[in-house]
Amino acid sequence: MQRIFSGIQPSGIPQLGNYLGAIRNWVNLQADHECVFCLVDMHAITVWQDPEKLRNQTLTQAAILLAAGIDTDKHILFNQSAVSAHARLAWIFNCVTRLGWLNRMTQFKDKAGKDRENHSAGLYVYPSLMAADILAYKATRVPVGEDQKQHLELTNDIAQKFNHDYGVEFFPEVEALIPPAAARVMSLRDGTKKMSKSDPSAQSRIELTDDADTIALKLRRAKTDADVLPAEPAGLADRPEAKNLVTIYAALADLSVEEVLARHQGEGFGPFKKALTDVVVNAIAPIAQETTRLMQDETHLANVLRSGAQRAQAIAEPIVSEAEKIVGFLK
Ligand code: ATP
Ligand code: MG
């Protein structure tokens, strides 16, 4: 059975893009993989987080993942900082990664914007911590959204350079599992920007704990154009906002874009957004309800994470110890 590793930052409430790009895939992959799912709090603090909020968001995210169908009897769910192997391997990888490689990373450019000098060194070396997350478990498959593809290519570059520099065949090659549909859900306010849980505007995203009224309001306000829905997908080219809403509909209703357009062609966005609201509410209301129930017992959630961390540690510790030996650390 292949091992999966994937993470999500407790930097906010998970949004629809996290669900379609990652979480929904995680749930399905549990059937035939050994899965390690991680709330990557060390990644979250690459951008300042209020400590109390970070703690709360970590528990809320655990609840959301359980509500979405992550099965912690069979698989591992924990928070990254609880397993020191991540930080230890990340340091080794910082010394393997080349500055030129990091300079090409588009996530850093997007997040730092023009004010590069004022961002943390952690944000810059984020991809080498991500490589450590995955390779501390020698995971071979990583389900992520399209925005993480470049970081996974870098993970393979780091693994190869480590193996080459130390003359070993130690770290395996990893494969990105990117969903065929809705791999990059876009912001509701700007069809050229990806939806993010850390975007300052909550109007830009649907959060997995939003109730039906909030979802309806956010979709009503979502940016669109004045045209009607076309009959063919080609008619969505150069209409990023329209394309995004149709893509979300198709992914959540398990239809193709062609099928959605066949049903709604010629419609304006007023009626289409109403139909879309029903589809979104149907998909996420059960998760939101179950999350509310699970949040009533924070001790249970903390225990789930603690036990997950112990199981994660048992896998990662021997792998990272071996990597430390390979580089020549005296044991
Ligand atoms: P942040 O804004 O703090 O970076 P985020 O919304 O980008 O938050 P992450 O925790 O960075 O979420 O990513 C978790 C997973 O969700 C990753 O696999 C990522 O590829 C996926 N993902 C994030 N945003 C989208 C999106 N808009 N569409 C599809 N997948 C996404
Ligand atoms: Mg992100």
UniProtKB/TrEMBL annotation:
Its main location: cytoplasm. Its EC number is 6.1.1.2. A motif ('KMSKS' region) lies at residues 194-198. InterPro entries: aa-tRNA-synth_Ic, Rossmann-like_a/b/a_fold, Trp-tRNA-ligase, Trp-tRNA-ligase_bac-type, Trp-tRNA_synthetase. It catalyses: tRNA(Trp) + L-tryptophan + ATP = L-tryptophyl-tRNA(Trp) + AMP + diphosphate + H(+). It is an enzyme of class 6 (ligase). Keywords: Aminoacyl-tRNA synthetase, ATP-binding, Cytoplasm, Ligase, Nucleotide-binding, Protein biosynthesis. It is found in: Cytoplasm. ATP binds at Q9, P10, S11, G17, N18, G145, E146, D147, V185, K194, M195, S196, K197, S198. GO terms for cellular component: cytosol. One of its GO terms (molecular function) is ATP binding. L-tryptophan binds at D133. One of its GO terms (biological process) is tryptophanyl-tRNA aminoacylation. Belongs to the class-I aminoacyl-tRNA synthetase family. Catalyzes the attachment of tryptophan to tRNA(Trp). Homodimer. This is Tryptophan--tRNA ligase.
